[in-house]
Amino acid sequence: MAAMMAAGHPSCRFVSTVCMSYPVLAMNAVRRSLSIGGPTFIHSLDPCPKGWDYDPMLSHELGELAVQTGIWPLWQVEDHKLSLIGKTRDIADGRLKRLPVRDYLLKQGRFAHFTDEDIDYFQSKVDETWNKWVIPGMIPIHKEVEQDQPPA
């Protein structure tokens, strides 16, 4: 949803993904959206112990793992300019290595039925989005296409 708002709504001034495991980034996004004026949208990942079937004590860790595995990238678009933020920026810049999706999936009962092949498939899809997409897992615009564009 957030990516569709960022890519397809010309009057939307600010769009961001957040995760409450990174509260300062989330607060900054809320502050920015309130101060910018005009339409804004924030898409938040909020782990759910009951629905995801895990010990509530793991909520913070699951939020961090969603970001660090690359499943939930943190980014923002302000006045149509994309910025990766926080750990996502560190991963994209090569300062931090993405964790395996297995670390995130197997802590949740909702994925208890996954086989090794399922996890490998899921990992391959996350890897593909990080290697080819502008916003990993969100906007499927290939980096190669962007690089082929003449400078503005």
Structure explained in plain terms:
The chain has one domain. The strands form 2 sheets. The protein has a 4-stranded mixed β-sheet with strand order 2-1-3-4, sandwiched between helices. Strands 5-6 form a two-stranded antiparallel ribbon. The longest helix is centred in the C-terminal third of the chain and has 17 residues. With 152 residues, it is of the alpha+beta class. It has 8 helices and 6 strands; from the N terminus they run αβαβααββαααββα. A hairpin with a 3-residue loop joins strand 5 and strand 6.
Number of domains: 1
Helix segment tally: 8
Q: How are the strands of the biggest sheet laid out side by side?
A: 2-1-3-4
User: Which radius of gyration do the C-alpha atoms yield?
Assistant: 16 Å
Q: What class would the helix/strand composition place it in?
A: alpha+beta
Pattern of helices and strands: HEHEHHEEHHHEEH
The biggest sheet, with number of strands, parallel, antiparallel or mixed sense and barrel status, is: 4 strands, mixed
Roughly what is the average pLDDT, rounded to an integer?
A: 86
Determine the strand fraction and express it as a percent band. Answer: 15-25%
User: How far apart lie the N and C ends?
Assistant: 28 Å
Which blocks of ≥5 consecutive residues have pLDDT under 50?
141-145
Percent range of helical residues: 40-55%
User: How would you describe the shape?
Assistant: globular
What's the count of strands?
A: 6
